[in-house]
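yo, Permease is done. seq:
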Amino acid sequence: GFILLVYLSVFTEIPQDIAQGINLLFFLPIALLSLVIHIKNKLTDLKLVGKYLILGLPCAVVGSYVAGITDVAVLRKLFGIFVLYIGINQLYVSFTNKPCKKGSDSK
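structure:
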């Protein structure tokens, strides 16, 4: 999803908010399929899914509304800051976490 969003935003004339909507249209069916597969393989705590849905759906609606009334230039800057933060965080974690020895407990 991230690569599609960057491509649509940077290499095409599609505005950021429209690119996010297109990305969401691709993401949702894939997420649903992944959830079905995880449930089938008993890798999902359904009680926890319910809690996340109760909290996540209202937050998604509010976030969508705020994104709709926010200038596209501001959305681009916020997205850039978010991506930069995630990248720096991933680099930091990869350099500070020592790999586990083979056969040792990871706790």
